[in-house]
Write a structure and sequence with these properties.
Elements: H1 5-26, E1 30-39, E2 45-47, E3 50-58, E4 64-72, E5 78-84, E6 92-100, E7 103-114, E8 119-128, E9 132-145, E10 152-158, E11 160-167, E12 190-192, E13 203-205, E14 215-222, E15 228-230, E16 233-235, E17 245-251, E18 256-261, H2 273-294
Parallel strand pairs: 1-10, 2-11
Antiparallel strand pairs: 1-3, 3-8, 4-7, 4-9, 5-8, 6-7, 9-10, 9-11, 12-13, 13-16, 14-15, 14-17, 17-18
Helix pairs in contact: 1-2
Protein name: Cohesin domain-containing protein
Keywords: Membrane, Signal, Transmembrane, Transmembrane helix
Transmembrane segments: 274-291
Length: 297
Amino acid sequence: MNFHLHKTNKAISYFITIAVFSFLFFGVSVAQAAQFSLTSENKNIKVGDQFEVKVLLNAENDSINAMEGVLVFPQDAVVLKEIKSGNSIISFWSQAPKATGNKVDFSGVIPGGYAGRNGLVLSLIFEAKTENASVIELSKAVALINDGQGTQASVKIVNFRLVVSGKAVEPKIITDQKDDTDPPEEFSPAISRDETIFEGKNFLVFATQDKGSGIDYYEVCEGKRACVKAENLYLLENQNLDEEIIVYAVDKQGNKRMATLYPSKSTLWYAKPLYLAIIGVLLALITWRVWKKRHAY
């Protein structure tokens, strides 16, 4: 069965070569500032109250197509109840927002870029547990310009200053105003292969959005094998590419969207501009991290 992977490999290798060449020979340049702001509509917070903190991006006349950061919150003062990403300007999470201890890491891509103001990146629901004055802050924030070279924008950060005073008689509880019964958006998985990824083995690439509760996880089902949870780049168990592949996108309310890839009708990913853009920007993020480590001292 012919998937024309030779053409795929050439297209991807060319794109990767251009991306890496740009960084190695031109370095990481810095443009004008993009601003991240942590804000909340809750101004009078008491012990027991729940409140939402939004992370907003102001692109400052640039177009931002990738970002990453780490949110840090005081565990002795608040409890993280929920992370919401359903209405994010980020359409592809290379690292979906995930809490570890008192930190929330995230990293994502915006194909085509975002050039607006007050774009929602994600939001967090906290519950105040002690009277205190502290800060919920964004650290290690990175934003890349949508210029084809992975130019790093200088970043301004406005953190959220938390003041909890008094105990709530009737604590404010945040609930979703709208039930999410809609599945994630339609998407089309695609197969690719490149010597720099998964040791040259065939892999699956896919991405979609859910503007309600947000994507919770993906599942990949190859032939009659058991379905497994997967990331957006998934190394295929069946390297012969002779079985049907089903990918499920599941949102945080359990709604599912199914996409099926038939071997005889597979759409090659090198023909999908969206996936080229996503992989290219991910490469820019990775190369930027390597550059940063080398120049840390």
